[in-house]
Design a protein that fits this description.
single chain, 456 residues, alpha+beta, Triger factor/SurA peptide-binding fold, Chitinase A, domain 3, 3 domains, four-stranded antiparallel beta sheet
């Protein structure tokens, strides 16, 4: 599967605190009151310049388990959730150092998840087993043809379990319940704010918008170095083939984690200055980070670009015919090259789409029709070529010995109309979601602050 099913079903909204290792900030000693105040700002606890640890713990002895207000998180819980992350990223394993960091990140995720489930129960909003089973079965229908038993077997096969995924579903539902009661009702967006936003959109018509995915990791001056190192490890894992969306869902501290970190299309002016400066030079598919921003770091992936309220050629709908030939097993490169040349010459004689079947028959090719496919849904390498074609023309041959060689013949094209302006309700919803995201982060921090957590 090119897109692991778990990049779809690992969708927790739990925010994660990344590897907050205590780092002592050295305070500047000056005789002036202003210098003392500046030192207090960067060293609020008044750490001494030289710190001596009276107790050293052997990291090889400590086990990654915890009790959260009395609820136990076991090593098995961590192992099975790590297996979900690796399955989502289509990874067989990680180097020992990276695996240890991943396990600690997963432990923090499980702690947050437990706090959310407990808080929902305390407010008489506990998630029922029936609700969890309904969501689980819906995922099975989506990915395993309405066969929960097949999904059970898959989870066990990758080293996880149905219980691990159901626990994550329970945490997500519990968090949504909490946000609906404790955050969403207190978010107010005025009509004037929405109208102002709509006017700004109109005046920015034609400017570029960027569709960005993010992984946000909070940090303080004391934890900045450790969080940056964790972010660098995540980037390395993604560049080695991991799913950005899966890592965002599991580790991002923004509520965009629920949608794989996707911010949607945004203008650079609406982003923090540090993010805007980096995004301006990105190309679709490019990942960058960790980028320091107020409050922490962000990993950014540029998904797409477009112009504000301007029709995008890639939204054109095409009618295509695919003409393809396969190669017999054992064919040599020279034989294949000769067959491709014959195929290309035959395609060059096509006089319109109605002539495709006749020409295909002369070279034993197959023809497949698709009368409604958007340019943007095609592989990126083909999009530019197809946009340059006139009706009746074909792309150059493409393919391989294993997959065969094919061309796409353009039979019709419906160009997109002027892009629709977002309506009042859409803009209001977007502003509300941004504010809910910020309030949700504060809410989760409060849950952590009040919790009694014991580590083994």
């Amino acid at each position: 599967m090119t897109d692991s099913i778990f990049s779809k079903i690992l969708s927790t909204t739990a925010a994660l605190a990344m590897a907050l290792l205590p780092v002592a900030a050295q305070a500047q000693q000056t005789a002036q009151q202003g210098g003392q105040e500046a030192g207090a700002a960067t060293n609020p606890f008044g750490f001494p310049a030289d710190i001596v640890m009276f107790e050293q713990q052997d990291p090889n002895v400590r086990t990654a388990t915890a009790k959260v207000n009395g609820a136990v998180i076991t090593g098995t819980d961590i192992n099975q959730r790590v297996a979900l992350v690796l399955a989502a990223s289509e990874r067989d394993g990680l180097p020992p150092e990276e695996m240890n960091a991943l396990r600690m990140q997963v432990l923090r995720n499980l702690i947050d998840e437990t706090l959310q489930i407990q808080a929902a129960a305390a407010q008489d909003m506990a998630v029922s087993q029936e609700q969890v089973e309904q969501r689980y079965e819906a995922l099975a229908r989506q990915n395993f043809s309405q066969n929960p038993a097949q999904m059970d077997a898959y989870l066990i096969g990758v080293g996880s379990s149905p219980a691990a995924l159901k626990r994550q579903i329970e945490g997500e539902l519990a968090w949504n319940n909490l946000l609906r009661r404790n955050v969403a009702p207190f978010i107010n967006v005025s009509s004037e704010e929405v109208n102002d936003t709509m006017e700004r959109l109109k005046t920015s018509r034609g400017q570029e918008e960027y569709r960005i995915a993010e992984i946000y990791l909070s940090a303080t001056p004391e934890t900045s170095e450790a969080v940056s190192q964790n972010a660098a490890r995540i980037i390395g894992q993604i560049r080695e083939g991991g799913s950005f969306q899966a890592y965002a869902r599991q580790f991002s501290e923004s509520t965009t984690a629920a949608v794989g970190g996707d911010l949607g299309f945004v203008r650079l002016a609406t982003l923090p200055e540090e993010m805007a400066e980096v995004a301006r030079d990105l190309q679709p598919g490019q990942i960058v980070g960790p980028v320091p921003i107020p409050g922490g770091f962000v990993i950014m992936l540029l998904l797409d670009k477009r112009q504000v309220l301007t029709a995008d050629p890639r939204d054109a709908t095409l009618s295509l015919k695919q003409i393809a030939i396969d190669f017999p097993e054992g064919i040599t490169q020279d034989q294949a090259a000769a067959k491709v040349e014959e195929f290309a010459n035959a395609v060059g004689t096509i006089r319109g789409c109605g002539d495709a079947a006749r020409v295909a028959q002369t070279v034993n090719a197959t023809v497949v029709d698709n009368n409604a496919i958007a340019v943007r849904d095609l592989p990126e390498q083909l999009q530019g070529s197809l946009l340059q074609l006139q009706v009746g023309q074909s792309t150059p041959p493409f393919g391989s010995l294993e997959d065969g060689v094919r061309v796409l013949l353009l039979c019709g094209r419906d160009d997109p109309q002027m892009a629709n302006e977002p309506d009042f309700d859409q803009i209001m919803d977007r502003i509300e979601q941004e504010r809910i995201s910020k309030r949700a982060q504060r809410f989760l921090r409060d849950l952590r602050t009040d919790a009694l957590i014991e580590y083994n």
